[in-house]
Design brief:
The chain is built from four helices and eight strands. With 174 residues, it is of the alpha+beta class. It has one domain. The longest helix has 27 residues. This is Histidine kinase. Keywords: Membrane, Transmembrane, Transmembrane helix.
């Protein structure tokens, strides 16, 4: 009889632990951003980020990871105007957002980037070490922002030698 009680206790603890992990990953660490950053794109001429016209910006972020930022917005700027003025992003892959942040659909954005109905731009390079902000804009003016590891960030986090082409890692002060 005591074996059954131990088995039931283990199952209850596992259920509680699983539910807690799910809650922490999907809800706890994320928070809506009260005053989202302006949407910026890196200018072809200056190499510096410049603000663009962006309306109805909604964003979420988490302090637990530099790649948890997601935002949705709209812009009246056309693809032709944007491609003449701003740097396109190579290898942009939208990262998923929690289901409750329903304006951001990574699968739809990814398909649109593949078929050309959306374009990805560099929003800001190295917003944190090894992390770039990417902005995707659809032909109809819908826009989405996320942060993803760049080449230096991928090498730094997987333990590969970073190399001289990457900026120096910031030192952490304790």
């Amino acid at each position: 009889m005591s074996g059954k009680l131990i088995g039931v206790a283990i199952m209850i603890i596992a259920l509680i632990a699983g539910a807690s992990l799910y809650y922490l990953q999907v809800y706890h660490f994320y928070a809506e951003v009260e005053t989202p950053d302006a949407v910026e794109l890196v200018s072809v001429s200056t190499g510096e980020p410049e603000g663009i016209i962006a309306d109805t910006i909604t964003a979420i972020d988490a302090t637990s990871s530099p790649i948890r930022y997601r935002a949705c917005f709209s812009t009246p700027m056309s693809h032709s105007m944007l491609t003449e003025s701003y740097e396109l992003a190579d290898g942009a892959i939208p990262l998923t957002a929690p289901e409750w942040f329903d304006c951001f659909n990574a699968e739809e954005i990814g398909e649109a980037l593949e078929n050309g109905t959306a374009l990805a731009f560099v929003g800001r390079e190295n917003i944190e070490y090894g992390v770039d902000r990417i902005v995707a804009i659809f032909e109809d003016g819908r826009g989405y922002v996320w942060q993803q590891l760049n080449d230096c960030g991928q090498r730094a986090y997987d333990g590969t030698a970073v190399g001289p082409e990457c900026p120096a890692r910031p030192t952490e002060s304790n």
